[in-house]
Give the backbone structure.
Amino acid sequence: MTLRRLSLLTAAVGLLAGSLAAQELGDAEAGEKVFSKCKGCHQIGAGAKDRIGPHLNGIFGRRAAAHGSFDYSEAMERAGADGMVWTARTLDAYLENPRALVSKTRMSFRGLKDPTDRANVLAYMRDFSDNPRDVPEAEPTARATDHDLDPKILAIQGDPEYGEYLSNECLTCHRADGSAEGIPSITRWPTDDFVVAMHAYKNKLRPHPVMQMMAGRLNDEEIAALAAYFKDLD
């Protein structure tokens, strides 16, 4: 094989790999139809503007709450300050259950439960990034996945007395009276929201390194116990 033919073959393989990577998330044409569920709050494409939610041009690879002209919730700004970046993985988790990733997000959308719908709409949204084939998550391994928490975990009945025993480390930062002075309140949280959030830290979907470490030390029963304790803490 001549050097020129080898070069052409290498280029062709590279183009094919780039094409496969670009398509890995799903079908962008089908995703445009799914995006109709988002249009009430978000615009995307030429001339897109902020509405109830920010426009979504260039969302891939952007830090959360980094679109300067939009007034984000404190929770979303905190996620951005913690280092959360919108990638295929974090966007997939957010679309499935917004509050699993950002507990007090203002986005009232209930989520897309069908992983195929999420994969397709992400493929459509990625077409409006600056360089769709080159964004950080545009790799063959960056397939959208289903981040559903096992219902058995959510069904665990936590022991609030055990949760109180475990809560000392939590209360070194979070306030028992529910006030939020730079650190979010975790009192009076619904147990499901608490458990989902802690597992998002445990699985490194939420980016805060201290919370990832703390959640990583806890087993399912301990997380359920903390949820039960903080739910009724006055």
About this structure: The CA atoms of residues 190 and 231 lie 6 Å apart. The chain has two domains: 23-126, 151-231. The longest helix spans residues 3-23. The mean pLDDT is 81.
